[in-house]
Hints:
The structure holds 3 protein chains of 3 kinds.
Chain A: H1 3-24, H2 28-48, H3 52-76, H4 96-118, H5 135-144, H6 147-168
Chain B: H1 3-37, H2 53-62, H3 74-91, E1 98-101, E2 111-113, H4 121-142, H5 146-177, H6 182-187, E3 192-193, E4 197-198, H7 201-204, H8 206-219, H9 231-234, H10 244-269, H11 283-304, H12 310-339
Antiparallel strand pairs in B: 1-2, 3-4
Chain C: H1 4-24, H2 28-53, H3 57-87
Helix pairs in contact in C: 1-2, 2-3
Amino acid sequence: xxxxxxxxxxxxxxxxxxxxxxxxxxxxxxxxxxxxxxxxxxxxxxxxxxxxxxxxxxxxxxxxxxxxxxxxxxxxxxxxxxxxxxxxxxxxxxxxxxxxxxxxxxxxxxxxxxxxxxxxxxxxxxxxxxxxxxxxxxxxxxxxxxxxxxxxxxxxxxxxxxxxxxxxxxxxxxxxx
Amino acid sequence: xxxxxxxxxxxxxxxxxxxxxxxxxxxxxxxxxxxxxxxxxxxxxxxxxxxxxxxxxxxxxxxxxxxxxxxxxxxxxxxxxxxxxxxxxxxxxxxxxxxxxxxxxxxxxxxxxxxxxxxxxxxxxxxxxxxxxxxxxxxxxxxxxxxxxxxxxxxxxxxxxxxxxxxxxxxxxxxxxxxxxxxxxxxxxxxxxxxxxxxxxxxxxxxxxxxxxxxxxxxxxxxxxxxxxxxxxxxxxxxxxxxxxxxxxxxxxxxxxxxxxxxxxxxxxxxxxxxxxxxxxxxxxxxxxxxxxxxxxxxxxxxxxxxxxxxxxxxxxxxxxxxxxxxxxxxxxxxxxxxxx
Amino acid sequence: xxxxxxxxxxxxxxxxxxxxxxxxxxxxxxxxxxxxxxxxxxxxxxxxxxxxxxxxxxxxxxxxxxxxxxxxxxxxxxxxxxxxxxxxxxxxxxxxxxxx
Lengths: 177, 341, 100
């Protein structure tokens, strides 16, 4: 076991356990925090994959910006806990029809994933040496080969910004739309 | 165990202890400078000229009772100060504070005076700074008190808003330096123009430096941007409900964050450990002088300027500082392209 | 040395957890968080594939995915806030105003 292997398993375990707890939590604040822990572990995995830029961006954008937004909203809505019990019987996914369809879909997903991962007999070996990890190379590729897509994302961000403001703002009368 | 490894572990411990010390020293300096600015004497009783005052404060805080509001979220309430303090310490790990040294010949290969040399150092500092928000937000929310929550909401909004200008100011320097590594940035500032003016980026980026300092003050929640803890409005903001050592950790984190921002400013704009007169091996003296100057500026600002109103702060951040920093970045990039700096 | 397969299996596990979250939970915020888990699982495969192919493209796609995730979070949370104002609930089963 090299140090890298140990680190991989540690980060992988943290990511998986934290993600499972995210969906097992009743308290949204705890969910958000556990997801941040999971992102931290993923960021460690990116470092192992020799992508330090992605690792840092993961922390800055996901943990530092998007999750703060989530935390903000949870705090703003005063963290309503999920209603449990009273409508458990009518949970739409627990009706027999959806349950069967969902079961088939879940089975299909698992079969597909297992098939995709074992199709090559698990022969994929170690990574080749010489990863592209310099920020300069990524930037060059981003602004040359992907410049059009990059510009399009700016439009996407603008649309999202306008949409968020319009949706969340109260009307001129001060009432929610 | 090679000598280099031992030296590196020693260096890490040294930085940790010195950061703890710097917080204590800053407590003393803050009180002394504040007193002088207000024509008072400040602490005088503990030790010569009151120099043992921080020690007395620490002892007092340690023996205080650890209070916890009954309706608080126990886990997060304990976690919040730890997050704050950890982020404060972690950010300094990638800040270089001197050229490499051989420790009087003990380490022949040379030991860089930096805990970890990362090639995306600037981004790492930025990332850790953005994680620091969580300590404050969680403290505010888990206390289950209205003052704490208001302080936390204010501070997270403030930190997110000023982070953008902070990042833009950083980016302008990086465009000139053409590197994301702080060591490279510092080394590009060695030497002098015309033999007199040091090649510090503050002369190439005067507006960037002002933006960086303003955003830095806002990021560390210092006056005149100290809304998270505005005493007159929010009692003490996010740490209203904290006492004893948990409170001390927030207090310490604030001062260590100040030291880190000053160190980054010294590295990015003031040439780090490069300066006239002193030989290269004594560069850390220059570094300390620069940090001390910036920290004094911080304290001076706090006791000179009154606090802004909250909407003024937000308007200033979004309508003045951010456009200015974007224009600065564009102008810098254009100049670099045109003159091929 | 962990190889490509290790990362892909991990990515598959994370994606399944995210999917399960979307299906099983009845809190809009948790559902949005589960979508983030799924996006991150995909990001991990992209970076791992990019590393295996020795190209920067994997990391660049992650960049775009993050942009989309940010946009999605902003709009999604805005919708959550305005829904909460109307219904005082985060349970998607409550929002049945169009169904009668």
